């Protein structure tokens, strides 16, 4: 049976493109997140505290003692989720706009499971230095940077340069988030089967950002032997086609 076609109107009142009736699209319509005030704005007194003239006192205090920004703004509890859309899920290089549903999803995971606010930022550049410079300039507004879905090998250089230049945590989720979950699962599996990590051998299928980070984590954890394979075979020093 063919999918039912709905033809809603968008916010401007014009007819939106036809799309199949699908609960996934229904959930994503309008995005999955929004900004919400944490203080009341009921009357002029509230406004005078949250904005002019009261806010000037806070601005002056931070200018005199920059560390106060962590107490009197959202900086210490908000993360930038940054991508260029070049390695999204298993979809590949689909561009910054198409990556936004994933970035929004990651942001609401931060909020729901960690109590941390997050802002999705999709950049219209794939140049390594431009990405680094852009994030460095955005960094004063955030307490941490979560790099997301940036293709290898650029992701390694971008993370390294940002960690060198910023005084806030910089974390590439596709590397370290994937690797720590893999290590946790392997440790639990070894415990349940009464085995030791040092006696295990792991084979990693794929030598991208996740595969490389997993290999590093497993070796650091003391795994007995790790072999990494890509589409051309086992990764080894005698190959001349590797970055």
Name some characteristics of this structure.
243 residues; alpha/beta; Rossmann fold; four-stranded parallel β-sheet; three-stranded mixed β-sheet; 9 helices; 9 strands; 42% helix; elongated; disordered N terminus
Strand and helix layout:
Elements: E1 5-6, E2 19-20, H1 23-28, H2 44-50, H3 55-64, H4 69-72, E3 78-83, H5 96-114, E4 117-122, H6 128-138, E5 144-147, H7 154-165, E6 170-172, H8 173-192, E7 201-205, H9 209-220, E8 225-230, E9 233-234
Parallel strand pairs: 3-4, 3-5, 5-6, 7-8
Antiparallel strand pairs: 1-2, 8-9
Briefly note the CATH topology name of the domain at 74-168. Rossmann fold
Q: CATH superfamily of the domain at 74-168, called what? A: Malic enzyme, N-terminal domain
Distance between the termini: 48 Å
Tally of helical runs: 9
Mean pLDDT figure: 89
**Strand numbers in spatial order across the main sheet:** 4-3-5-6
Provide the gyration radius in Å.
Answer: 23 Å
CATH class of the domain at 74-168: Alpha Beta
Beta-strand fraction estimate = 5-15%
What does the largest sheet look like? 4 strands, parallel
Secondary-structure-derived class: alpha/beta
Low-confidence stretches: 1-8
Going by CATH, the architecture of the domain at 74-168 would be 3-Layer(aba) Sandwich
| Apparent shape | elongated
Order of helices and strands: EEHHHHEHEHEHEHEHEE
């Amino acid at each position: 049976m063919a999918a039912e076609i709905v033809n809603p109107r968008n916010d401007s009142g014009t007819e939106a493109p036809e799309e199949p009736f699908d609960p996934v699209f229904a959930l994503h319509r309008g995005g999955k997140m929004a900004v919400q005030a944490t203080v009341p704005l009921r009357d002029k007194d509230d406004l005078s505290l949250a904005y002019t003239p009261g806010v000037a006192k806070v601005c002056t205090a931070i200018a005199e003692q920059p560390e106060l920004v962590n107490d009197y703004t959202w900086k210490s509890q908000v993360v930038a989720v940054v991508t260029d859309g070049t390695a999204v899920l298993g979809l590949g290089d689909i561009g910054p706009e198409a990556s936004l549903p994933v970035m929004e999803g990651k942001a609401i995971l931060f909020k729901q499971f960690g109590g941390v606010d997050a802002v999705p930022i999709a950049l219209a550049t794939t140049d390594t230095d431009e990405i680094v410079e852009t994030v460095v300039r955005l960094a004063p507004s955030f307490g941490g940077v979560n790099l997301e879905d940036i293709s290898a090998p650029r992701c390694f250089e971008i993370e390294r340069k940002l960690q060198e230049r910023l005084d806030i945590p910089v974390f590439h989720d596709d590397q370290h988030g994937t690797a720590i979950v893999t290590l946790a699962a392997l440790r639990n599996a070894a415990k349940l089967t009464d085995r030791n990590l040092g006696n295990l051998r792991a084979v990693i299928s794929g030598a991208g950002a996740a595969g490389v980070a997993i290999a590093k984590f497993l070796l650091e954890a003391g795994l007995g032997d790790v072999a990494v394979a890509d589409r051309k075979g086992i990764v080894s020093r005698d190959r001349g086609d590797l970055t």
